[in-house]
Batch of 2 targets.
Target 1
Amino acid sequence: MASEQFSFKGFAEQPFYQGVNQRLVDSLTVKPGQRIVDLACGTGLLTRLILERLQGAKDTLVIGIDQSAVSLGLAMRDLKSAPGVMVQFVQTQVEHLSSTVQGSVDAVFLGNGIHLIPDKKQLVAEVFGILRPGGTFAFNSTFFEGGVPPESEQYYRRWMSKALRSLKSTYGLMPQRNKVEARRQLSPQEYRDILEQQGFSVTKQELVPVEFTLEGHLGIARYEDFVAGAMPGVPLEMASQVLQEAARQSYEELKLTFVPRNWLQVVAVRP
Ligand SMILES: C[S@@+](CC[C@H](N)C(=O)[O-])C[C@H]1O[C@@H](n2cnc3c(N)ncnc32)[C@H](O)[C@@H]1O
């Protein structure tokens, strides 16, 4: 059961995470009268950054879409609107984009969620369909082929094997591996190919190096979707607790102050 205790909020507040998402939102050209969609908006980090960027732009509309009622509730509670900007939140799946948004829009953002969408071709077609000619689609993700640089692999191996050992020794449990949905991570070229096949012109594709902190790993280990994906079938409290403790120990043993990670950032334009 989704709850605020295991929401994305704690992770979304991490400065390194705000920085990498600010970079994505900075690709937005601000003009009055724009209509902007924040897809998979979660607890509303990008929505807030978009609103801040729209300061001074009149008659704009921002639509946040997410499947999680808990996340949308937190986004609505914390967001302060800017004058002249209207914000709407819709609880639905991003796959239903064209039937959710009426009329064309100027920009679609999808922060840290594209890797979660099984049919990326269909999603990109939906985004293309609602954008006006000249409109932009900007997304980012660290779950792509290349997200974990070789120097960080040791940390991730240690973190997961420690967490699994502790789950077994403390609670006598093992995750149900057969429940994990096989999600292959795409390469930057594969994302580019999908966009271009749909008719988009890719104007920016970059790898952004990020210093992931212990607070970040503790935050992600308190996020329901991550915990359930890392340890399927294990009660959330137990899985989260062993993941947090294993992260602390791994940082200490490897004497780390941060773990390098790459974010993929892509901006594409509908010609
Ligand atoms: C990692 S969070 C990112 C939230 C926000 N965009 C950010 O960058 O802080 C991923 C979000 O995708 C949402 N999500 C995943 N699959 C979805 C789908 N098919 N339709 C709508 N939302 C989805 C989840 O509910 C979650 O809020």
Target 2
Amino acid sequence: MDTLEAIEKRHSVRDYDDKPIGKDTVDKLQNVIDDLNSESGLHIQLVLDEPEAFSEEHLSYGRIHGAKNYIALIGPDDQELEEKCGFYGEKALLEAVKLGLDTCWVGSTYKKMTSVVDIKKGERFLLIIAIGCGVNDGESHKSKSLDDTIISEGERPDWFIKGGEAAFLAPTAMNQQKFQFVLHDGNKVEAKTYRAYFCKTDLFEVGAGKDNFEWI
Ligand SMILES: Cc1cc2nc3c(=O)[nH]c(=O)nc-3n(C[C@H](O)[C@H](O)[C@H](O)COP(=O)(O)O)c2cc1C
């Protein structure tokens, strides 16, 4: 499965079975996380066999059932943290999808288990991504209009439309999709987001092809 196929396949899954993730898959995912940490300066951690994070039984929305494995997004507590966690977290998530796992970003409907992760001085534990074997595939989310989301001063090249379409498949908190991509001077793209997590910029890059444009 390539990354674009993983983007298309992914939906949030909130019901998991209790099968452990195989060692080979764990090792591959750990390697991905190590590489992403080196590149980003984040301190992303894989947490296995830890169901407590999902034990909030009172929730009417967003209860994650049966999960016990997750990716904890942790990093230096600076102004870039949320943006980086979105961008690199989504990269880790898509690799998990390629390895056959189901996933769900969880920013609020979980218990933050600080005792099971390593938080260095100056770091903040921001949110998690549940991973595991889902008992269903989740559902497609509703999307806003592409015309409201990819804005151009002139023509909209094919790569720009493909980037927008890939970004549309991104998970966003409460499915708000509050983002726009604006094309300037034919190849300069400005990402406007009203929330700080940047999952969609990663997906836009995959859809558009990084050689076709530069971020401004
Ligand atoms: C930053 C972020 C935080 C999220 N937090 C939660 C959460 O706390 N609980 C939950 O059930 N889903 C959460 N989600 C998942 C979104 O609800 C989901 O991505 C959105 O409804 C779109 O559906 P899809 O992922 O199936 O495409 C979060 C997603 C993102 C990107």
